[in-house]
Structure formats: structure tokens, C-alpha cells
Amino acid sequence: MDNEDVILSVIATALGKASINIGCSYNYLELSKWSNASSVASALNEKFDLQMTGAWVQKASSLKDIIEFVIQNGQMESNGKEYGLIERIANLLKPFDNDYDRLVYSNIPSYTLSKVRRDHKLGSSVKILYYREVESYRTFILTEDGISYSDTKEPRLEQYSWGHIRSVEFNPKDDRFYFYFSEDSNDCDYYYGYTLLKNTDNERCTTFANVLTQIAECFENEEQKLMDQVYSLMDEEKHQEALDAVNKLLDLDSEAQAFYHFLKTRILVEMLLEQEMSDDKLIDQAKKEINVAWSTLDEEALVELRPVMNTMDGILHNMCGESYQARNFFVNAMDTELSELKTEAEEYYLEAEEALQETWNNYTKVYDYKERKFIMPVKDIAGCTASDINVFRMNNIPSCFHFPAGHPVANELYIGHPYNPSVYIPYEGSEYTFFLDKIDELCYLLQCLGATEISVTAIRGKSVNELNNSATHVGAEASVKFFSGSAEYDNKFGSEKDSQSKNSLTLTQKFDPLKAPYLPEDLIWYPEQTNWQRLVQQRINGNMLEYHQTISTSETKFVSTSEENDLKASAKFLWTKVNASYKDSLETKFRQSVETEWKVDVKFRSIMDFNQSVSANTQSERQAKAEVCLTSEEKNYREEVLFCLEEGGVISDAERLFLERKRKKWGISEKRAQEIENACLDELLTDEEKEYVEELQAVLMDGVVPDNTRRLLERVRKSLNITEERAKELELSLAK
């Protein structure tokens, strides 16, 4: 059986026919159909080691053309010689070798190769298949990678890979070779016939153009063959071999480079999922590949590949211990119509949510305010991620969050309280809600400091009536209603309203405070308000009688204009995802609020007027005084000092060593520690003991009472009715 019969037999088998002959027409064989053409190409490629495509078979005009191509380029058993791809291409180019300024492959001298590699910036391993010297400084070459034109005089270097070249045609009218890169006739480049061949014979130039097209198809066929090999190896779970094959695809410099980076990521992720131990090197490699794919794939490809890529990116982040980022990638991966991909992504998402439960329970402690500032609960979370809004499913909102009554509501945008980490309120109107909350706390603080009259006057914006009428409050324990809280007073005067206009301009209430001024606990705004802190010091340590402060909503606006613009875009995206009416939401949630400014005026009862029994230095009042200016570390130190002084008011040697360790740990100076200890002693001493201590401090020299003053000090002790034992304790405490 000769070569022709062997080829016909292979084609017949591929088409499911017993036999065919060279006279069979294309219509009879139905080779214009893609399925038949593809089957024939695959069979011939496998038998004769070709890179033929179904598209080429469809374009062939007869069986004779197919047979001639196979005999010329295939590995025929009859001639006993097998050609590799490079050798077959060299064989196609050989007729154009003139042993002078047109040289083919093995006929190119080594000294010429060196110059060519230098001029065309080629590596030493790149095979040069054809060399054409136009001038000593101007050359055109064909390599295994593509075509290259160099002009070292201009200088100029143009290179196109075979993967980018669709076809080559010669136009005798303008003596140009046209290299087409797509079906668009305008997507091309050209070179004059003299540049490529020197010989301007039209027939010869047309033949050369056809050869160049065949070479491009050979490399295209090789690419398709490698692609089929990759998919086959992936199906067989031979991941290392598939990885080697996809690396060869990447070496081809094809137009599909971006897709091959995606394919390589997929193989690497499968390899990582197979391994029992984590492989950091492999993870880094996979992350690098997927980043390249994200940045180079066009939007059309991303539409199809985005769900898979999000899932892979989520898996990689999960392997790095980045559960929160992984969870968001899985959320995006769920945004697909393909049920299989959606189900897989949701399974990964639920696993990530479970891993994040501890983080959710401590969310406000784990993330700072800027990172957790905005949240939005939704029912369907698929595809709902935004850089500046944290999105949660309604059934899995962190337990540490607290909302106003009736909330949370699906698709509502919330903002976190800047000073009360667990509280979130609707973003709509939040500026004014925070404003009311701040006013509430100030009025409560003023009551605790012994206010007899508080007046709130609207300077501009909203009426003060809303202070009492407002039903919106920032959490159950985050604030108090106007003039409420645990302050002790007798509100026997009621309220007086100034009705100068339809809306009240001033709201006034009067009180009869029963308790000496003190600093209440659990204040929210107070730690950040330095003017309030000075007020407390002046009121408790002095005798301030009046106080005035103006508060504006500008002070409770915690979102800048640029931040709000970004937030608006993110919210619009999320509302579109959940099919909410974002147009109405944007108008209401982000409407410009009217700036409101209120003035708070207060009158205090004189500390001298408080009943002695009430205003005496009780333990709680002394504590309030002592704590006003203490840092958290100093407060901790004070608690330890009070504990050591509980029995007898004396600090033992062991207790002194204990306190010294605590002082150093908390970074408190010796001078400051002594001041705190003296203040603690002051809290525990009676008036008589204070007087005795003053006398002691006056006579002590280096911690010792001189003998010549001991008798006078004893007389003072007796006059103050202090026992000898107690006097010794006080003396020892001062001596230390």
C-alpha cells in the first residue's frame, strides 16, 4: 500500500466509511461540515504527526490537496525518515535559498547568525529558519517564534509571533506582502517584495506568501495540539504533565497568553488541593499567575471565567489564612447563572463563614473603625462585595452589633458609631442622630455636675422640640433621652418653652440637685471631648456656676465629601445587585442634610450650698475627684494601692515590692505614683487624721521624727483623739 492509499484509508476510517478513492467529491464526503473535517484532521495528525486543523481541511478544495500536504509535511513510514516541525518548515523554505543573500536554516553561516541575533535581539537558543539581507544594516528573518525586521541605521525593530499571524498574501499591484492578524482586512502590516525575496517575480512571491501562511498554520496547529493535550491530562488528573504542557503554550507567545495564565492557575490550584501539606512556593506561583490573568484577560473572557477565577482566588487566600478575603472572593464567585459553579462557590463560602465565626463575634475589636465603618445586611449575598461597605447575610450578622429598634433591615446602609463600637445606625440621617446623641450626653453630664437650669436654644436648623420628640436613639445603652439618666435631682419646676415662632427656639428645664457633683460612668462621647473634661475638673475641683457651649451637626459628620462619593458608588452597585430601587435610595439616603446648630446654657448650684451630709467627701465623691485626671494605667495603679491600704491604711514591705512591679509595668513615674498614693491615703483618712498627717509631714526628717519634736507630736495626737497604734501606722506610711 503506497502513501496515497494509506492516507485515503485513514480518512475513510475517520468518516466511518469502508473505503474511498481520490475521485470522491467534497460534497459526497461532507467535509464542509466541522465535525467531519475535525475528525479527519485529528486522525491524520495522530497518524502522521501533523498539526492540521479542521478549518484547513474545510478550506482544501479536494482530497488531492489533502494528500499532497500530508505527503509533503507528514512523517511517512515509506521514506524511512521522520521530520520534526523545524525540519519540515526548513524543507518548505529550501526552494528560496540562493546561497547568497537568501539563506535557509542549516545553510546560514555561524558568523551571520551571531550578527543576526545581535541585530534582532534574539537569544542564543532561538532557531533562525530564513535569512534575507537587504542591506548590511537591514535584514528580514523567520524564526521558530515568528518574523523579524531590523534596520540598525534608523534604528528600527519590528517583530510578530506566528501566533499573531493569521495569513500572508502578496499583492502584485503594489509589490507588497501583507501580514494579516485577524479577519479584519485593516488589521495588518506589510513589507515590500524586495525586502523579503529580492526577486520580484509575481508567481514566486505568491508562492512564498503561501509558504508563510502554511508556516503560521503549522504553529497554530501545534498550539491546538498542546491545548488538547492539556485538557486531556487535566481530565486524567496528571497535573504535573498538564503543567509542563501549559508552560509550552506560554512559550509560544500566542494571542491566548492571558487564557493560558488562567489555565496554569487552575492546574496549580488542583495540585494544591491534592496535597496534604501546604506548599507556600506553589501558592505564591499560583497567586502570581492568577494576578496576571486578572490583569490581561479582556472583559469578554472575564464574563465567562470570572466565577471560576473568583473561586480559585478564594481558595488561594484561604490557604494563606486570609479567611475574610477568601470569603469575599467566594461571594463574588456565587454571582453566576451556572448552578454547578454557584453551588461549589456557596459551599466554600459557608466554610469560610464558619471559620470566621470568632472574628464575627469580636468584629468591632478585630477591625478598626475605618475598616468596619459601613455595613449592609442583605438576603442574597451573591456578588455583593464593595471596598468600603462590609456586606453580611441577614442570618449571619455579627452578634456584637447593636441596632435601633426595628433594625436591622435588609439592603439598608448602616454607619458605625465613632465612639461606641458595637452600635450601628441607618446612614440616612446619621449626622443628625449623632448630634442628638451628643446633646443628650452633655445634658446628662451637666445634671450629674449639679445643674439647676439647662437651656437648649436652636440657633439654626432643626427645632429643639425634636430633642424630646425624637424616637431615634443610638442603642439601648449608648445614650439617654434628654434630661434623663441616673442623676439625682428634683425636677419640680417642669419645663418652660419659648414660643417665639411656630417651632420652639429654646427648651429650658430646671432642677433641684440632691447629690454633690460627680462624674458618671459609661459616658460615650466624654473621652473625646476635651472641653467637657475641663468642665468636669473646674466643676468638681472648683466652683463653676455657669457654662455655655455651642454644638453643630458639622461636629457629628464623620464622612468626608470624597468618602461619601465613593460610598454612594458602592451603595449603588450593591443596591443594583440585590435588585433594590437604587435611584430612590440614592435620593433619600444621601440627600444633603440641613446644618443644625444649638447652644447649651447651664447654671450650677454652688458647691457651698450643698448640705454638709451630702457634700461631704464620701467615698464615691473622692473617687470621682481622683479619677478625673487619671489615665487607664494610673487608674489600675490606684486600685492596687487602695487594695493594699484596706487593712490599717499601711503598705507593707511585700506590698511595696508588688506596687513597684506594677508601677514599672504600667510606665508610671515614681513622682506620679507617690501622688496617687497620697491621694488614696487622703480618701481613707478622717479630718483628724489628715491634720495629724500634716503635722507629721512638717516635722519628718529623712522619714524619721526627731526626738526633740516627739513630745510635741504626742500632744497633737492626744488632742485629736488618735490612738497610739493608728499614729504609728500613719507615721510608717509616710516614712516609706
General description of the model:
This protein is an alpha+beta fold. The protein folds into four domains: 3-73, ACP-like (Non-ribosomal Peptide Synthetase Peptidyl Carrier Protein, Chain A), CATH 1.10.1200; 85-220, PH-domain like (Roll), CATH 2.30.29; 356-621, no CATH class; 622-735, no CATH class. Helix 1 (3-15) crosses helix 5 and helix 22 (561-577) packs antiparallel against helix 23. It starts with a helix and ends with a helix.
Strand order of the biggest β-sheet? 1-2-3-4-5
Count of alpha and pi helical runs? 31
Low-confidence stretches: 78-83, 470-503, 612-617
Number of strands: 19
Q: How many separate domains?
A: 4
**DSSP strand content:** 5-15%
Helix fraction, binned, reads: 40-55%
Instruction: Profile the largest sheet.
Output: 5 strands, antiparallel
Secondary-structure class: alpha+beta
**Shape category:** elongated
User: What would the average pLDDT be, to the nearest integer?
Assistant: 83
Could you tell me the radius of gyration in angstroms?
Answer: 44 Å
- Give the termini distance in whole angstroms: 117 Å
Short summary of the structure?
This protein is of the alpha+beta class and 736 residues long.
Output the keywords:
736 residues; alpha+beta; Non-ribosomal Peptide Synthetase Peptidyl Carrier Protein, Chain A; PH-domain like; 4 domains; 5-stranded antiparallel beta sheet; 31 helices; 19 strands; elongated
Write the layout of secondary structure elements.
Layout: H1 3-15, H2 26-29, H3 34-48, H4 54-59, H5 63-73, H6 85-93, E1 102-104, H7 110-119, E2 128-135, E3 138-143, E4 146-151, E5 156-161, E6 167-171, E7 176-180, E8 188-192, H8 193-196, H9 202-235, H10 239-251, H11 257-274, H12 280-296, H13 299-319, H14 323-333, H15 339-355, H16 357-361, H17 363-366, H18 369-372, E9 374-378, E10 390-393, E11 414-416, E12 424-426, H19 430-448, E13 451-460, H20 465-469, E14 489-490, E15 495-498, E16 506-510, E17 512-513, H21 530-541, E18 546-552, H22 561-577, H23 582-589, E19 597-604, H24 612-615, H25 619-627, H26 632-644, H27 653-665, H28 670-684, H29 687-699, H30 707-719, H31 724-735
Parallel strand pairs: 9-10
Antiparallel strand pairs: 1-2, 2-3, 3-4, 4-5, 6-7, 7-8, 9-11, 11-12, 13-16, 13-19, 14-17, 15-16, 18-19
Helix pairs in contact: 1-3, 1-5, 6-9, 9-10, 10-11, 11-12, 11-13, 12-13, 13-14, 13-15, 14-15, 22-23, 25-28, 26-27, 26-28, 29-30, 29-31
